Amino acid sequence: MNKFSLNSVDTLRNKKSNSLMYQYTFWYVINLLLVVLLIGITLIVAVSLFLFQDMKNDLTAVQTDLVQIANKQPSNQWEKQIDYLLYPEFTKFNVEMKNTKTGEIAHSQGWEKIITADNSKFHYLTIKNFLIIKDEGLFYKHQASFGQNGKIIIFAKLSVITDFIKLMINILIVTTLLALIFGISFILFITKRNIRPLLSITTAVNEIKSISNLSGGVPVPEKPQELTDLGTSINRLLFQLHLQIEREKGFVSDASHELRTPLAALRGHINLIKRRGKAHPEILEQSLTAIDQESERMQNLIHQLLAMARSEHYELELVDVNMSELVSDVLRTYWKEDRNITLELNIDKDIHLNGDVGQLSQILIILVENAQKYTESDGKVIVELTKNNKEVHLTVKDTGIGIPKEHLDKIFHRFYRVHKDRSRQTGGSGLGLSIAKQLVAFNGGDISVKSEVGKGSEFKVIFKK
Ligand code: ADP
Hints:
Helix Hairpins, single chain, alpha+beta
């Protein structure tokens, strides 16, 4: 057998011994045996002690009577009196009564067997006063004396106790076997019934060969509840994955579409220059301006796509950020002075926040650049930073063109643009706000927008402190 097949046999064995059915059966058998052993031993010990005590009471009574016989009866009457005393009630006792001085001696019937045994040949085992005698069983040896030289030896046969122990062992064996047969059958039945839905879930998961059929899901059993929950959770996960994949697919096709448009425009202008540039030099000027605009648009788009890809795999570095300083610094660097738009700042001092410096700056840049892009010359952009006990509010308001109500909930979607032409002119990609929303969420905040067409827009970011 080669290494591979050896390994697979091992794996198979492991699989079997790890299976739920095997584990349940194994632990059931162990527990059952332990319980039976514990109950059995306790019962046997308790009842045996009780029976032994009972025998000892009889033994004391017999011994008292024997002493009386020895004292009151002549020795030739002893044997008769002993038998009279022992039969039929106390046949478990075998007695020898003797006077060591005079040599008078008397035995109960059946003493011979014991005496031979007592002479040692047939003792199997002797522990303290207990001894096992061949063909006779377990005995308890008791000695007492009477008068000055009298001696009584009593062998008590413990057959009641040994019979009881034998009976108990038989009962325990039979009940254990029955419990094993019924218990194991029951476990097999129950686990098989409960595992069947689990197996069908596993089969369904194995059958999902490609990510395209994720939405089909797995069968959800009605019971047991744990498997219903498992099936539901797997389906929820599959559905989320399906949505995610669909979103990614959409994103890729949107992104390629977005890139295709400026590329087509670039190629168009290049062809035009090639064909007619020499004859019509004025075309050159126009086309170069268009090429400049389109290539800037592509540059912006690629820049945004990169920012988005980076933010998805970016490891947040949350630190204490002085937002008041950050807002001033960002505006100093990124505010474009080339258009006649007034910037008004209402920034409260020393507002701190736990967040990622790079991402917080990026959010502000996106909002301020948009405010500038969609505001006419002579307009105004107001940036406010305030706080209360629990939150920090960053607001970017403008007196720009505004956003129609029906678009408000969509402007945070990727590639969504309300003002397509204007966005095109300003090099907008439709990605800025979706990136901003993502970054705000990473930093534990929320972004909302209010706007009125022709009057302006207000983007508010609320960060929890
Ligand atoms: P873009 O790169 O096109 O600006 P954004 O995701 O940043 O992409 O914004 C999505 C759309 O929302 C924009 O195309 C624009 O139509 C609209 N928008 C964003 N900010 C403003 C604003 N301050 N005023 C008016 N419209 C805005």
